[in-house]
Amino acid sequence: MLRVLPDDPAVVLPALREALDAGPAIMVRPARLPADAAPAPAEVPEGVAVVVETSGSTGRPKRVLLTAEALLASAAASAAVIGEGRWLLALPLTYIAGLQVLVRSIAAGTDPAVLSGGPFDPRVFAASAEGARYVSLVPVQLARLVQSAQSRPEVAAALVGFDRILVGGQRSDPRVLEQAAALGARVTRTYGSSETAGGCVYDGEPLPGYRAEAVAGELQLTGPSLFAGYLDDPDRTGAALVERDGARWYRTGDAGSVDDGRVAVVGRMDDVIISGGVKVALGEVEQVVREEFPALGDAVVLRIEDAEWGEGSLVVADARFCGRRPSLFAVREAVTTRLGRAAAPRRIHWLEQDLPRLASGKPDRVAIRALAGG
């Protein structure tokens, strides 16, 4: 049996407690669904506690099956590193990081504080943070808090008041992390996914009980919180979960490396292009563009076809707040210097609106590509 619930902590928290105690499984769905959203299933395999629909940031969403054991193992591994205490829920419960705030609260025997709904407001965040020791954020939230903290002492005090701030879901801007550290905020970068029941790598180090390896350039993870599979999708399940060395490994689809146990993520494997016969990781191009040209903000780099080079890249940025726009020549020169000529973007597309985002805070690359005409 599966209970489909609204994104309401007052409804989800008691239902999640039951699900973790062998009760009916739950699935949280947003109030507003796309017109083409698939109907919720009525049944799930035995032993499943939670079904999480993935963001679908680059394609068709998946329904991730998580057992109570996996969810609680993730919470225990996190607590072993950062400790236990009261959490502030500041993320949607349709997102694994939001659900894990409730799982950790249940495991610790605490009641979470809850950030009120509506657009993210640093002032409301500061007022809601009183008494909370931990919070999980996405990078765009942290960036807004750090910016607000420059002029609002109550926001700065709230940031410093947390024992730990977890930030994940996508790559964080190093400048924001530096500014947060200068304020005295204790920020930990996390890496993981719905398939690992949340973050299982903290600041590049796998949590206790987890291992990471790079196989043919792809990051693979193993540990006690791996998902049971994708609902009604054996082909995707078989492609994502592999048996090796007597353990189940999750093929993340992320390109990266593991050196002396430390994990470094470059980007998505399917975002590696062949430009003039040279492999180029679009995640690396995106990183250089953001670092070298802060005025471009959270610019996104997409794959495009190129008549001469076969494939190339397109930079998409919000034109409204970047002041003097850098020229394509300047962007190409900066990327060429750090990554080589094949990595230099072919074009820049300027939007006169916010870059579309998913509920998790990640850029909605499908929507961005449609706006850019790619």
From TrEMBL:
It comes from the Bacteria. Residues 37-204 form the AMP-dependent synthetase/ligase domain. Keywords: Ligase. Pfam families: AMP-binding. One of its GO terms (molecular function) is acid-thiol ligase activity. InterPro entries: AMP-bd_C_sf, AMP-dep_synth/lig_dom, ANL_N_sf, ATP-dep_AMP-bd_enzyme. PANTHER family: LONG-CHAIN-FATTY-ACID--COA LIGASE, NONRIBOSOMAL PEPTIDE SYNTHASE PES1 (EUROFUNG)-RELATED. This is O-succinylbenzoic acid--CoA ligase. The lineage of its organism: Bacteria, Bacillati, Actinomycetota, Actinomycetes, Micrococcales.
